[in-house]
Amino acid sequence: MDISKMIPWVILALVGIAALAVFVVTLIQASPARRREILNSVLMSLAVEAERLYGAKTGQLKKQQVIAWLYARYKWLTWLVSEEMLSKLIDDVVARMNEWMKSNPVGAENALK
To answer: Which residues, 6+ apart, have CB-to-CB distance to 105 below 8 Å?
Structure first.
């Protein structure tokens, strides 16, 4: 086995671990309001991703997908945030996203590409 071929994967893994550590430390040190803001940003990103994947009129499917992605990417959140709480947060994020899309159709079109 050529060890030089493994070096990029090791570096990538270390960068991923460092990014996760920075995210966790930032979340832990943040005030409750800042934590919610961070979580809302992540949920908004995942909601847009789900909208791109599933399109319109699939709200419940998209919500379940966002919850699954969030728990898959941040497993430790399952201990801190219940699915019911996430559901409410996602509803709030989607309402804000829909308002933004209505007021900014060009931005909405670009976001969903």
So the answer is: none
Residue type at position 59: G
Lookup: tokens for 65: 């997908």
Most confident of 30-39, 66-75, 78-87: 66-75
How far apart are alpha carbons 35 and 57 in whole angstroms? 30
Tokens of 110: 């670009």
89 within 8 A of 41, measured Cβ to Cβ = no
Predicted local distance difference test score (pLDDT) of residue 43: 92
Question: What span, in angstroms and rounded, lies between the C-alpha atoms of 23 and 15?
Answer: 12
Considering only the C-alpha atoms of the chain, give the largest distance between any 2 of them, rounded to a whole number of Å.
56
Q: Where are the alpha helices (DSSP H) in the chain?
A: 7-29, 32-54, 59-73, 77-80, 83-103, 105-111
pLDDT at 47: 92
DSSP state of 31: -
Q: What is the pTM of this model?
A: 0.67
What spatial distance separates the first Cα and last Cα of the chain, rounded to whole Å? 41
